[in-house]
Amino acid sequence: MINIERARSPYSRGLATARPARVSAVVVAAGLLAAAAPLGAQDAPVVTPGDPVLRPDRLRPFEAEYDQLGFTFLARLVRVTAPEPTIDFLMIMEGPNGIGVDHVGHRASDLSFAYRRFGFSAFGPEHIDARVIDGILRLGRLPLEADGRTAVIDEEFPLAGPAVDGTFAYWLTAALPLEEGYRWRWPTWQPASDGVVFRESAPFEVAGRETVELRSGEILDAWVVEAVGEGSTARMWVSEEPPYLLRQDVAPAGGEPQTVIELRRLPGRR
Question: Which pLDDT band holds residue 120 (cuts at 50, 70, 90)?
Fold first, then answer.
């Protein structure tokens, strides 16, 4: 499983199973969604896009600045109307190798995954363009070789039903009717080294409420959400106000938790 202690770069070049030196914090967190859920997880219902409990109107536009393992992580959520109404989520991540850009879109009507465009990849230097058209996930990959040569790889993967993007799912949590004891799972998709992975996530559960002190000194009330995967556990602090995700700690089984992403200040504050 992913070794949290080796997490360094916000968009490094490999998973711990392949190249353990560096692991992206986004990949670390998304691993909980792509990894198999533990036994007993089936009592947590799967919230599929279009489910009445999932309310698109709960998500409001914002711009936010996070710290991700010592690097700046900028996030922006906007609503667009053309070519179709979508909720667009842009992530700009600094790191030792430059700046990575990750652009994710979900349909505003039901919050189903619509597209994702990577300016990097966890599995090697490449650009990835994924989009859902008529129930088919069409994946274009452009590996960037050291000698400058490139080759476009186009693949198609039928969807069994609507899914959510595994990274945006942490912010998407705010669209749910959160209350203590509420449990759910997500139907997710994640890119893999040889294609994509479709899988129901590990179970999420609202453990209660706590106050969170940001680095700016601001103190906020938040829901505490825990997700327990097969080999790691995440603990998140989620606000009902933008930018929703305030902090996330991840721990490997039997290991100490590490803060992988943390809001620096409330939007608009300096």
Answer: low
Q: Quick one: 140 exposed, middle or buried, by C-beta within 10 A (0-12, 13-18, 19+)? A: middle
Closest alpha carbon to 3 in 264, 255, 190: 255
Amino acid present at 236: M
For the CA atoms of 107, 237, 76, 156, the dihedral, rounded to the nearest 10 degrees, stands at -40
More confident residue, 192 or 198: 198
pLDDT digits (tens, 9 = 90+) for 218-235: 999 999 999 988 888 999
258's tokens = 């590490």
Residue 250: its H or E element? strand 245-252
Q: What is the pTM of this model?
A: 0.82
Q: Tell me how far apart the alpha carbons of residues 153 and 205 are, in angstroms, rounded to a whole number.
A: 38
Residues 6+ positions from 98 with CB-CB distance below 8 Å: none
Amino acid identity, position 107: R
What's the confidence (pLDDT) of residue 4?
25
Distance CA 47, CA 112 (A): 11
- Cα 65 to chain centroid, rounded: 16
How many angstroms separate the CA atoms of 73 and 102, rounded?
11
- Which three-class secondary structure state does DSSP give residue 57? helix
Cα distance from N-terminal residue to C-terminal residue, the chain: 38
User: Cβ distance 4 to 251 under 8 Å?
Assistant: yes
Whether residue 56 has pLDDT greater than 70:
yes
Token representation of residue 204: 């999420």
